């Protein structure tokens, strides 16, 4: 090399970024991969439940042979417990054991980031999981019938309690002429929540809904609200069967009978759920507080920090009721949900105490039955 020559430096080629996981579009993340490490070491496969059936489920996973996503059936018995709120459901990420006998089965359910849990449709204090690991809860409300404010508030509390972001979707706007007025009424009882007016038939509002329905979404609402129609419109398929509502009372038939996860074309997924006749909250204290954030803001101005809003002087809530700032209907709805939440909390505590007592009794019985040394 001469004095005038400048040594050249070879720039190393940029490393090729690792390929995205085939299930990344459905919500598989580095955090979930880290939580799955010990399951992977045991030869198990990660997957997401797309449908629950009695005693089994369908799991979307990556086929080890082809490296492509595939749906496989698995038995659920190994992970079922007496606590219904923690049993596997649609949307759960799970460890799939292909070598289980007599058939492939679930070996574990990964920790959930969010879960929509309502009180079971019976008098026992148990929760029913509607969907897990969703980012947005789409609350479908039909404009073909006058919306019930109390039901909308319940659904909002249920959505907020899940940990996901609620979004109200007013459907069937093509059937009414006063959609904007109804939307304003719904916005008044949904502080901080986006309300969209859409029609799957004409396409009105669907572009904005698709833009907001990113990640994993769950559709909840009454039968006949158009949830299955929205699912088909969002996915661009006829994945869900739809039926016409009764013209007499605009009530729908239970066309969707199971909760089913359907991938979205641009990534993400939507979970269609059966129509909800009853919307009982299960541990919905925080959800109620967020659904009625306007009442919390008013109560913050009460003179006494522990104001019961009954007879105390300088009560901001009583003043708001008197001047109409806070509608009496909304206040009564808030109190009703609070009473229900207090009841389920007391019943749940009693059930937990009974379970602990039963467990202690079993341990004592087991200890006494051991042979003495």
Q: Features of this protein?
A:
single chain; 373 residues; Rossmann fold; 13 strands; 3 domains; alpha/beta; OB fold (Dihydrolipoamide Acetyltransferase, E2P); 10 helices; Ribonucleotide Reductase Protein R1, domain 1
List the helices and strands and how they pair.
Layout (H helix, E strand, L loop, with lengths): L29 H6 L1 H5 L3 E9 L2 E7 L6 E7 L17 E5 L7 E5 L5 E5 L7 E6 L3 E7 L6 H14 L2 E7 L7 H10 L5 E4 L8 H7 L3 E5 L6 H9 L24 E4 L5 E4 L12 H7 L1 H7 L16 H8 L4 H42 L4
Parallel strand pairs: 8-9, 8-11, 9-10, 11-13
Antiparallel strand pairs: 1-2, 1-4, 2-3, 4-5, 6-7, 12-13
Helix pairs in contact: 3-7, 7-8
Strand content: 15-25%
CATH class of the largest domain: Alpha Beta
The H-level CATH homologous superfamily of the largest domain, spelled out, is: P-loop containing nucleotide triphosphate hydrolases
Order of helices and strands: HHEEEEEEEEHEHEHEHEEHHHH
- Largest beta sheet: what is the strand line-up? 10-9-8-11-13-12
Organism: Kitasatospora setae (strain ATCC 33774 / DSM 43861 / JCM 3304 / KCC A-0304 / NBRC 14216 / KM-6054) (Streptomyces setae)
Subunit structure: Monomer. Associates with 30S ribosomal subunit, binds 16S rRNA.
Binding site for GTP: 171-174, 221-229
Enzyme class: hydrolase
């Amino acid at each position: 090399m001469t004095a005038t020559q400048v040594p050249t430096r070879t720039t190393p080629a940029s490393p090729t970024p690792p390929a995205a996981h085939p299930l990344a579009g459905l919500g598989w993340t580095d955090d979930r991969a880290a939580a799955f490490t010990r399951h992977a070491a045991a030869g198990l496969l990660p997957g997401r439940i797309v449908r629950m059936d009695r005693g089994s489920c369908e799991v979307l996973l990556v086929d080890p042979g082809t490296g492509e996503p595939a749906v496989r059936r698995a038995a659920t018995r190994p992970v079922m417990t007496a606590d219904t709120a923690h049993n596997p459901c649609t949307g759960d990420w799970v460890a799939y054991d292909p070598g289980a006998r007599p058939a492939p089965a679930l070996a574990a359910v990964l920790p959930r980031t969010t879960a929509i849990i309502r009180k079971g449709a019976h008098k026992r204090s148990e929760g029913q999981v509607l969907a897990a690991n969703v980012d947005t809860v789409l609350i479908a409300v039909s404009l073909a019938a006058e919306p019930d404010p109390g039901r909308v508030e319940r659904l909002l509390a249920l959505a907020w309690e899940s940990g996901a972001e609620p979004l109200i979707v007013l459907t069937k706007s093509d059937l009414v002429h006063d959609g904007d007025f109804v939307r304003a009424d719904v916005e008044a009882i949904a502080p901080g929540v986006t309300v969209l007016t859409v029609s799957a038939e004409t396409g009105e509002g669907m572009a904005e809904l698709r833009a907001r329905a990113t990640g994993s979404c769950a559709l909840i609402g009454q039968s006949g609200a158009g949830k299955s129609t929205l699912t088909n419109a969002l996915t661009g398929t006829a994945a869900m069967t739809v039926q016409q509502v009764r013209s007499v009372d605009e009530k729908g038939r239970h066309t969707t009978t199971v909760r089913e996860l359907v991938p979205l074309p641009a990534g993400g997924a939507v979970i269609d759920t059966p129509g909800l006749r009853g919307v009982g909250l299960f541990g919905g204290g925080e959800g109620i507080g967020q659904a009625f954030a306007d009442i919390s803001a008013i109560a913050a101005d009460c003179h006494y920090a522990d104001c019961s809003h009954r007879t105390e002087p300088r009560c901001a809530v009583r003043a708001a009721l008197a001047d109409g700032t806070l509608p009496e209907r909304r206040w009564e709805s808030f109190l009703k949900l609070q009473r229900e939440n207090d009841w389920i909390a007391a019943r749940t505590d009693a059930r937990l105490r009974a379970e602990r007592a039963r467990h202690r009794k079993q341990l004592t019985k087991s200890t006494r039955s051991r042979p003495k040394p």
